[in-house]
Design a protein that fits this description.
Elements lengths: L3 H7 L5 H15 L3 E6 L2 E6 L2 E8 L6 E5 L19 E4 L8 H16 L1
Antiparallel strand pairs: 1-2, 2-3, 3-4, 4-5
């Protein structure tokens, strides 16, 4: 029987599934202190048990995105706040190559918040 977190990644059709699975692995490899947890019905990545980011699908645009928990503290022109109070998101197009430089820049800024 699959864990809910594993089922979440497998329930999406391609290319969204591959996009989310790749990001999952990439985030987990960034730092040995990053773990994944199933919280609030979604995959959440934590740094030393503190929520850091999550992966989700935009309800209106049906695109995967990387949600940044401490988004208000991150300045990046491609992060979107919409109607959220603190979190920001980075929309991703699963039909295109992922913008890894952009993703890494944002994730490194996020890690800097938790490691300092």
């Amino acid at each position: 029987m699959l864990r809910p977190i594993d089922n979440y990644f497998l329930q999406h059709s391609e290319p969204t599934q591959s996009c989310l699975q790749f990001l999952r692995g990439h985030i987990l490899k960034l730092d040995a202190n990053i773990t994944e947890e199933w919280k609030y019905g979604m995959p959440v990545f934590c740094y030393k048990r503190k929520m850091m980011c999550y992966l989700w699908i935009h309800k209106k645009l049906h695109q995967p995105y990387l949600g940044i928990v401490a988004g208000k503290q991150i300045n990046h022109p491609d992060l979107i706040i919409e109607k959220r109070a603190k979190m920001k998101i980075l929309l991703l197009d699963p039909n295109e190559d992922l913008p890894m430089d952009k993703i890494n820049t944002i994730l490194n800024q996020v890690l800097a918040i938790y490691t300092h």
